[in-house]
Specification:
Blueprint: E1 6-10, H1 17-28, E2 31-34, H2 35-48, H3 56-64, E3 68-75, E4 78-85, E5 88-89, H4 97-107, H5 110-123, E6 129-133, H6 136-140, E7 146-151, H7 154-167, H8 174-190, E8 203-206, H9 212-225
Parallel strand pairs: 1-6, 1-7, 2-6, 7-8
Antiparallel strand pairs: 3-4, 4-5
Bound molecules: 2'-deoxycytidine-5'-monophosphate.
Length: 237
C-alpha cells in the first residue's frame, strides 16, 4: 500500500474544502494544492488584459502562455499558500469580488481546463497531496486513493463566506452572497466540460452541522485507513 496517498477533495463553493484540505494536509504533513486558486489566477490575468471571459479562443491562447506556481511559506506551525502568476504574487488579488464573479465562465473553457489539469497532475505526481476543486476525483486524479465530496446547505455555505469576508472587513449582504453561491453552483454543475459532480467512489460528507475540526479528523481517519502514514519532515514544495 502507498503511504503518500493522493486525497481528492471536491465540493461546491463554501463547503469548507480549502479550510479542511489545509487542515488535513497539515496533519499528514502533505502538500495542499488549491486548484480553485489556479482558475482564479487565470481569471485575474484575463481581467487585467481585457480578455473577455466569454472568448474561449483568446482565453485558451492566453493560458498556454501562463505560468502558475503554488508555494508554501512556514509561519509558526501554519503553512501559508502563495499563488504566483507569471512570477508575481497574486495571493490576495485572486480573492477579490471581481475575480470571484468572473471565474465560473473562465473555468468552463475546455482549453483552460486542459492546461490546468495537466499542471495539476504534474503537481500530484509524487503523491502526498491533498488537492481540492470540483473535478479532482472525477477528472484530475481518478486513481486517487481517497476521494471525498463535501457538501453543506446553501444557507450555511453563504453564512461561512459572509463571515470570512467580514473578518477581512469586507461588508457584504448575506442574501447577495447566497445568491452568488447559488449562481456559481448552477454554473459549475451545468457546464459541459468536467462539471462539478461527485465521483461514484467518493465518500460524501455533509458538513452543515460539523465543526471544521470534526471534518478534518474524519478525513484524516479515512486517509489512515487507506494507507496514509503521518509523515515527519518538511512538506514544502
Ligand atoms: O474553490 P474556488 O471558489 O476558489 O473556485 C473558483 C472557481 O473555479 C469555481 O467557480 C469553480 C472553478 N473550479 C473548477 O472549475 N475546477 C476546479 N478544480 C477548481 C475550481
Amino acid at each position: 500500500m502507498v503511504s503518500r496517498i493522493r486525497i481528492a477533495l471536491d465540493g461546491p463553493a463554501g463547503s469548507g474544502k480549502s479550510t479542511v484540505a489545509k487542515g488535513v494536509a497539515q496533519k499528514l504533513n502533505y502538500i495542499y494544492i488549491d486548484t480553485g486558486a489556479m482558475y482564479r489566477a487565470v481569471t485575474l490575468k484575463a481581467l487585467e488584459n481585457h480578455i473577455p471571459v466569454d472568448d474561449p479562443e483568446k482565453l485558451t491562447r492566453m493560458v498556454q502562455d501562463t505560468e502558475i506556481d503554488l508555494s508554501y511559506e512556514r509561519k509558526g506551525d501554519q503553512s501559508v499558500l502563495h499563488v504566483f502568476l507569471d512570477g508575481r504574487d497574486v495571493s490576495e488579488a485572486i480573492r477579490g469580488l471581481e475575480v470571484t464573479a468572473n471565474v465560473s465562465p473562465v473555468a468552463a473553457v475546455a482549453g483552460v481546463r486542459q492546461a490546468l489539469v495537466a499542471m495539476q497532475r504534474k503537481m500530484a505526481e509524487k503523491g502526498g497531496v491533498v488537492m481540492d476543486g470540483r473535478d479532482i476525483g472525477t477528472v484530475v486524479l481518478p486513481q486517487a486513493e481517497l476521494k471525498v465530496f463535501l457538501t453543506a446547505s446553501v444557507a450555511e455555505r453563504g453564512r461561512r463566506r459572509w463571515l470570512e469576508l467580514r473578518e477581512k472587513n469586507i461588508e457584504v449582504d448575506l442574501a447577495e452572497i447566497i445568491e452568488q453561491i447559488e449562481k456559481r453552483d448552477y454554473y459549475d454543475s451545468h457546464r459541459e466540460v468536467d462539471p462539478l459532480r461527485r465521483a461514484e467512489d467518493a465518500v460524501l460528507v455533509d458538513t452543515t452541522d460539523m465543526t471544521k475540526e470534526e471534518v478534518i479528523d474524519y478525513i484524516v481517519k479515512l486517509a489512515l485507513e487507506r494507507g496514509a502514514r503521518i509523515e515527519t519532515g518538511c512538506s514544502d514544495t
